[in-house]
Amino acid sequence: MLKQAILAVALSGAMLAGPCMAHAKLQSSVPSKDAQLTEPPKTLTLTFNEAAQVAVLKLIGGGKEIPIAVDKNAKASPSFTFPLPALAPGSYTVQWTAVAADDGHVTKGSFAFSIRA
Amino acid sequence: MELSGWDAAAVCAKAITYAATLGAAGAIFFLGICGSLLQEPQRSRIRHLIGILVLASTLGTGAKILLMSATMSGDLAGMFDKAFVLMILGAGEGLASGVRLAGLALCAFALSSNQRFRALAPAGAAIASVSFAGVGHVHGLLPNVAPSLLLCLHLLCAAFWLGALAPLLITARDRNDSQIAAVAERFGKWALGLVVLLLSAGASLLWTLIGDAAQFWSSDYGRMMVIKLIFVAALLGIAGVNKLYLTPRLLQGDSKAFVRFRRSVQTEMVLGALILLITATFTTVTGPPR
Question: Three-state SS for B152?
């Protein structure tokens, strides 16, 4: 009986191999990481490798945090677009925190972009 | 891999929840298997332990949700941010916590003086143990249910093994050599098969989540898994010594074996706690590479 159970476990393991989602990771963004823009972007788009919810989004430029409206009650999605206020030339850092919809894990990240004068 | 203070606190809450839940469930399973070999004061002490562990698991479950919420903002305010808490609950933690609390409520019937009510406790122990499969990396593989079923099996066997250690120590406290020998022998008979199932299910899940041996040293998840496996191997070694060397000597009435048995159970408890802490860490701050 035990041998049969172990065999069943081993066989099911052999049949399991398939794609497994890890934590929500930022796949791409617009503006992209280290982008050097000639015009200020009107929106910020974050695209994740799986459905997630954005919990925190900070845009920091010139040492100050620039407010961005984040709908914390928005449905989980792989992609989010946020309207940006008029940005002056300079360097900016985006800091994000997301919750993966399928496993509930919290991930954080940041990237920078700049706008030329 | 970065670990903030809030992340560390969330990992600790998760580890405490694992230990308390599996401990309560394992103590209930232990009473079911070895209870007839114990005296009423010993059973009463184990039931008292179950009560404490049920309370610890309930508090740990709540603390874990609040601390995960705090990790989002990185400050105390995040802990009480309704939107953050709802995000955590909505992403699977709510279902897993609800199932766990329902299971723990049934576990609490182990404290009842009514035997009919006590009969509900093993079902609660099973429900509370498998609740951890309701959220996390393996849950993310749904609609493929096989990994979740394997994780449920892994959790039930882990509860049986790790959760029996404290009751074994409680039993050994009375220094009744023939009784502890009989308990160790009966527990060992069950443990052999269930530990093999635990390891088989764990190995199958590991293959599903990692899938490439190179990931054991090239990813944070793999490296932490290697540390866990080293501790599991040490735990297995001690359990093997208990079954093959100490239990036969306990049955022969060797008094030195009794002292060694107590020490080895204490060592197993420390190793079990470390395994749960490592598991809580890599399931919180890292993800499988595939």
Answer: helix
